[in-house]
């Protein structure tokens, strides 16, 4: 072994973009990467990211808020430009923004299908492509796509969401194959059932809540804190030989 860095997980001096950073899991990703040393570009749409900014700054890092609807693909390159202008570069991209629309497949509105694909998949391709070009040029970079256990399973009443998350897993592998030799690692985290707004309807349904809990070996819903370690790992030099991996953080759900 040639090198023994003091902390393989250190992100000091790195710049990260986190989409959907105003609330939910994105807020935790932003704060977690800041805890490990990174300055963060907080991408938000309807939610104010002021609270997340304060969390990042409490770790002594800098935060810059960008308000963008990621479904508007013409606006996406400006996010990468702002990161470079504000912090002088880009090292980490976390594609976290996502939506879910619940309705049985036979009645699923096409507009819901389209909206989910625009937010969860199409924006991710454009952001990966734009960030990837810059990262290839500099010979380094980390992209973390936030997938789902529905990247592997069908789910119920969420056909658009499931399609988007399966496609995201495929995209992660496709980009990893092309960019691994260029120093850019593209991986994904597949959270299991986490307690956020996204899953509130499930937790409020006593039958579904019980069914879900009965299947999780860990016996509880996940929390945003459960995802911070895996995110720091995939953003840091500790994962330099990981490419196209979909890392399940699911309390054991996928083993059942
Ligand atoms: P959430 O609490 O519902 O938050 C969704 C986030 O996405 C918000 O920050 C929201 O920002 C952002 N967003 C939605 N539409 C957007 C748009 N058009 N433009 C920009 N940002 C947009 O969801 P979450 O549970 O934190 O989920 C975060 C990610 O994890 C998603 O990709 C989700 O699929 C994935 N995931 C979640 C779970 C879970 O159990 N919670 C499990 C597996 C995967 P605004 O508020 O500003 O609109």
UniProtKB/TrEMBL annotation:
- Keywords on record: Oxidoreductase
Entry annotated with the keyword Ribonucleoprotein? no
Q: Which GO terms describe its molecular function?
A: 2-dehydro-3-deoxy-D-gluconate 5-dehydrogenase activity
Q: Where is the Ketoreductase domain?
A: 14-182
Class in the EC hierarchy, top level? oxidoreductase
Q: Which residues cross the membrane?
A: none
UniProt xrefs under Gene3D superfamilies: NAD(P)-binding Rossmann-like Domain
Instruction: List the residue ranges forming a coiled coil, or say none.
Output: none
Q: EC number(s) of the enzyme?
A: 1.1.1.127
Q: Which family does it belong to?
A: Belongs to the short-chain dehydrogenases/reductases (SDR) family.
Q: Which PANTHER family match?
A: 2-DEHYDRO-3-DEOXY-D-GLUCONATE 5-DEHYDROGENASE, SHORT-CHAIN DEHYDROGENASES/REDUCTASES FAMILY MEMBER
Q: What is the protein name given in its UniProt record?
A: 2-dehydro-3-deoxy-D-gluconate 5-dehydrogenase KduD
Please state the gene responsible for encoding this protein. Answer: kduD
């Amino acid at each position: 072994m040639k090198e023994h860095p003091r902390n393989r997980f250190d992100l000091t001096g790195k710049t990260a973009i986190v989409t959907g950073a105003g609330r939910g899991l994105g807020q935790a990703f932003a704060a977690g990467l800041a805890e490990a040393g990174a300055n963060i570009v907080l991408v938000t749409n309807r939610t104010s990211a002021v609270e997340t900014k304060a969390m990042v700054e409490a770790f002594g890092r800098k935060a810059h808020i960008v308000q963008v609807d990621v479904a508007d693909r013409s606006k996406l390159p400006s996010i990468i430009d702002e990161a470079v202008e504000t912090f002088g570069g880009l090292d980490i991209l976390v594609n976290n923004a996502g939506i879910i629309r619940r309705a049985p497949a036979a009645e699923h509105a096409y507009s819901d299908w389209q909206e989910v694909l625009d937010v969860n998949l199409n924006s991710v391709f454009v952001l990966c492509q734009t960030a990837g070009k810059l990262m290839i040029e500099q010979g380094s970079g980390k992209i973390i796509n936030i997938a789902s256990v529905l990247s592997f399973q069908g789910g119920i009443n969420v056909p658009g969401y499931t399609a988007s998350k399966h496609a995201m897993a495929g995209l992660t592998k496709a980009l990893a194959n092309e960019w691994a030799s260029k120093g850019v690692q593209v991986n994904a985290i597949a959270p299991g059932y986490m307690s956020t707004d996204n899953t509130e309807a499930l937790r409020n349904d006593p039958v579904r809540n019980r069914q879900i809990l009965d299947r999780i070996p860990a016996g509880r819903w996940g929390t945003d804190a459960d995802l911070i370690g895996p995110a720091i790992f995939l953003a840091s030099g500790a994962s330099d030989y990981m490419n196209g991996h979909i890392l399940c953080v699911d309390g054991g759900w996928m083993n059942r």
